[in-house]
Amino acid sequence: MSDQNLADWRKLAVKLEAEINKVIVGQESPVRLITTSIFSRGHVLLEGDVGVGKTTLLKAFTRAIGGGYQRIEGTIDLMPNDLIYHTYLGEDGKPHVSPGPILMSGSDLSIFFFNEINRARPQVHSLLLRIMAEKTLSAFNKEHHFPHMVVFADRNQVEREETFEIPSAARDRFMMEIPILIPKADQMMKDLVFETKFHNADKLIEEVKPDLIKFNKLNELSETIQENIKATDALKNYALRLWKATKNPGDYGIKLSDIDMNRLIVSGASPRGMSMMMKAARVNAWLNDRTSVTPADIHAVFHETIAHRLVFNPVYEMRRTIIARDLTNGILNVINAP
Amino acid sequence: MIMKYLISLWMLLLSVSSFALDVQEWPDIQEGIISIKIKEPLHRVGYTVGDKSERHVEVTIKKPYVLIKESLPIPGYERKYKGQDLGIVLDAMKHVLKEDKTSSTLIMDLTYQIFTNNVVAKPGFLPAEYIRVLNPNDPQKKVFKYRIPEYQIAISPLSIFGAIKIEQDMSPLRGVIFMDETSPMKTLKISGIIALLSLLGLIYIYSQYAWLPNARGVFARTHRSINKMKATPTSIQKAITDMHRAFDLVIGKTLFTDNLHDLYAKNPSFKNIDTELREFFKLSTLVFFNTSNKKYDHDEILKWLKDFSRHCRDCERKLIVDKKSLMAGLTK
Q: Is residue B41 located within the same domain as residue B133?
């Protein structure tokens, strides 16, 4: 893929963002981050209250990039096979088997949304994580491939009962955890409540131009972006210092109030996590029409790609969201670049 | 035999000539020709071996009489009293001879040192000195002597007779045994002069480089260091890094374009150079993170950095930077 093609693709990516921002108001930052994850082919954890528009957001993206969109609700009695098939008695009175959400779109599956993933049992997590990693599934004596699939999973952060926290090893498979928050501007809040066009999500999504991007070209494009966007030694050193700081923040003079920095971190960012962070940073550089990664690109994705991977001491786990935000901010504030 | 006789004769002649010298007498000068003022030592008692005592003597000789300089007291000359060494020696003598129309004045500072002691107190004296004068107009060149009177003192034993521990002898009749303070005083004066010169030097250095308010500020220092740099790729990288460090120090965290507002909140003067600040970050990205092989004019970049660091220094001093002097477009 030539530089000219990359430039053309960038225009399309920018157009994609504009299309999404047309229907999803006040979510420019999450839209940019989801765009980044789509072009870097990374799975995403979505964090946010109910009813903030996560499903609408993902549907809008699916419409713009094409391919299949499937969704499943996490429940305590959900079993792994519920993702693959479901059985029912047909009109003919005989039992029938039809494909579950994973298989329904076949290899064209582009976005799979797992709502409230932490309500599902670990067995379900296990299956999903395998599909995420290998993008294949053996079922009905056949190997099914999902080469274009990107998983979006939502965690219910409010309720703790009857939930199964996703283990750190599973969280590490997700490229990003993106917070979806209610817009803060009064006018936007009014629009969301009083503008009737926001009341019907399906109709709203129809405003997005369909198949703006060919979903089946994204894997190749992603590789091209990663090959073409360079990183200098200065930037590599900067990323290395950031990585080390996630392991021992206290050694770098990072202090958080009421936190024992020597006990906070059980495990810092993993090599996979850092490589995912750099992947996302490269895409961010490309989206900003740069040929090399700058610290600003890392900053744009650092919290979202690193925070969910950090393993905290159980004492601090209940305050993870706040502590992780403060910690990543602290790291970026303290580590000098270049 | 003859030789023995000759030697005896020679020794006799020698002894006669020395006797002649000793017994040579000059008449006293008549009264009214010479007047004298003496400033005697502060105390008369308590002297012991090693002590020094000073006399200040001013002798005024009316003209036409003049002083015979060879008659001045000679330091180190051992005096005798009743055939025995006196034990008080003239250690030093400083003199000045002042002339005017009617008289000449001899000013002498005589320092005597005590070299005697006894188990009990004994009298002693700073010996009398003789000077000689003559009238040059006198065809006979007759010489007269003038006696500077002696000064009675008492020499104390080092301790009460029989006492071994001197600290038990606290006799108020004996003066304090002073150490010779001349040498420490000299050292003190020299040290004082060196300290004063050092202070003046420091004031000079400080005034040369740091007399302005905030001249010790981080941007002032950074600007000075950048000003000394030469236009090489390494220096440019160092200059940019130094500027980054300076910004980081000011806001207490790493400054990037997305948190410039923190800098403005800390020091609103920087708002005036917003365009240059953004240009600086572009330049930093260009230098450290751009992989293109495009060549840049290092002289131009360094010149820009010098101006930029000066503007930052001015902002640090809360001065208003003239916006006309801002330069953008370097990284285009």
A: yes
